[in-house]
Amino acid sequence: MSNHSWETIKEKDFEKMLESSISKLPPDNIAAAVTPWKKPMYRILAGLALNAFILDFLWLEYVLPAIGTTLLLLGFCNLRHENKWFKICFILSVFQTIYFYTFLILNTSIYRTVIYNTQAVFILKLFHLAILFFELVCLWRGVLSVQQKAGISPHGRGATALIVWYALLCLLALIQYSGWIVPGAMIVSYIFIIRSLCKLSKEFDEAGYVIRPAYKKVSDRSIVILLLSILLAGSACGYTFGGSYPMEWTVLKADEAAKAADTKSRLLQLGFPEYVLNDISAEDLAACEGARQVVVNVADEPAEDIRNLRITGVGVQISGEKEQWIIFHHFLWKKDFGCSGTEAIQLLPAYHVVSDGWESAGDVTGRVLYDKNGETFVSDYYFLGSQTDVSNNIQGEDQNSTQVFAAFSMPYGSRQQRGYVSYTVNEIQEGYTVSSWFNYIHQKNWFQYPAVTAMEKRMHEELSSIGAFRLIQDEFLFDPVDGNVELDN
């Protein structure tokens, strides 16, 4: 083609020729590599938003911050080579990711409450909060640095407002603000702050500034898969190794049954069930010496849609200056126990239920047993004693509630899981029945997050058949005068 021909081609015709020579637009990943600012910045803003608001249902209080923390990591990872401030933000986001995912894994263990209540974790939480504010300051400085390189008049109003917004959020949490006006205004202001920060991408595009993307040996997808793999593996370990109490099991000695043989024979004559009597410790048997009367109530309670749990109440009247009774609550799993998590017994003794008629005459005792490979193993409860819980009454005032609990775990593969609790009461006034409640909290499966023990579940929440736990209640109610048991099962 001659020079004259080139000169006759108009500029618009030349542009049409270029457009026709390109069959389609480049893929999104290629376009992002050319102008990489928008994608990481949007990830950072989305991450900040997901970490700012907590929705306390459907586990969103864990899912949304987990996504937000991951987005912050990916966003700052792409910008870490742009300036030193974004590099610091990336380092801080790595710490945030380790911190948050560690706590997600700890939530699968029943020991999380013990760990959370330590002084070290409290200091770590304060340190994490300080890191969050420092990260926002570095984000603000990083944006100003980019604006200077792009030839834009430096301004960081949005980032500055974000720092103030988070400070106000912490203040509201500190004073435990419960109104809706201020939080509503903060939500609206947060939307405007994020909108202001989003405009930065448009400013950089208009200025023609191109950010050099950070070279990554590992792709974003690989980072997400790695984090999910760590979370799943850590959670599996948490549920497996941190889902039950460490019990001190020993083989039941053969000569223990020979102790207090005379007392045992006397109790059998009075009608004490032999399967319960065989599980009673020698010390508790000795306390029944001089028994005058035995009252028994047996109830096969439905568990897992079958009558699988047998609860037996036994009252033993013993000689003394005052009328005195030893109350035994015995449980026996007749078939498969199911999940080997945590179990709990909530005991409402007669001196709590009928405080005008009975008083405590000693500590609560008991133990747990199981069979395996032809041998019987025995252990003390992991916890046996009183627990005080603080709750609000109708007037909004704090009230203390002290209850007796026994907590334990059974090993996987055990059979005939059983145990008992016992206590002694003295009569204060005549004419009162003995009413003693035995509430058994059974863990049906592992599907709970965060992980809590059966005792914690009973102390702080109402139980139903829905969820990982089930409550089975039994009342042992009898008249101490004639020994008649009032059946309500």
From TrEMBL:
Keywords: Membrane, Transmembrane, Transmembrane helix
Segments traversing the membrane: 44-65, 85-110, 122-143, 163-193, 222-242
Name the UniProt record assigns to this protein: Uncharacterized protein
Upper classification of the organism: Bacteria, Bacillati, Bacillota, Clostridia, Lachnospirales
